[in-house]
Specification:
Structural class: mainly alpha
Order of helices and strands: HHHEHEHHE
Number of strands: 3
Largest sheet: 3 strands, parallel
Helix content: 40-55%
Strand order of the largest sheet: 1-2-3
Radius of gyration: 21 Å
Strand content: 5-15%
Length: about 140
């Protein structure tokens, strides 16, 4: 239990607009989760996150880093729990075209191939990201 350590006048101040929005958003998300949970009968509960999402025609995905595809704990969890994959950074422009006109899809292909071989959907990611632009693009 959290104890309020603010002085009484500060504790009675109305919440700021930003804080109210965050709380409202969290409560809205909780309401959506509750609605989804009650829409699926308890005896039909899925054993994985991906299977639970698939019950309502959705997918549950994760970002995959090609450098971690050799880690069996990482791939076991990704393969078991998720039914959709997005490349973490491997398909962003700094990785696919580090120099103008010089393309490299090796890491992105590795993520894609792993996903397809494991029956996953593949989603694209932001191609041009502010923090990961090659020098020629800036």
């Amino acid at each position: 239990m959290r104890v309020n350590t603010m002085s009484p006048p500060a504790a009675r101040r109305p919440l700021g607009a930003r804080r109210r929005a965050l709380i409202t958003g969290a409560l809205g998300a909780l309401g959506m989760i509750t609605a989804l949970a009650t829409a699926i009968p308890a005896d039909a509960a899925a054993s994985t996150l991906g299977a639970a999402a698939a019950q309502s025609g959705r997918y549950f995905g994760t970002a995959i880093a090609s450098g971690k595809l050799g880690d069996s704990a990482y791939t076991t969890i990704a393969n078991r729990e998720f039914n959709m994959v997005t490349a973490e950074n491997e398909m962003k422009i700094d990785a696919t075209e580090p120099n103008r006109g010089q393309f490299n899809f090796t890491s992105g292909d590795r993520v894609y191939n792993w996903a397809v071989q494991n029956g996953k959907r593949v989603r694209g990611h932001t191609l041009a990201w502010h923090g990961q632009q090659p020098g020629w693009m800036q």
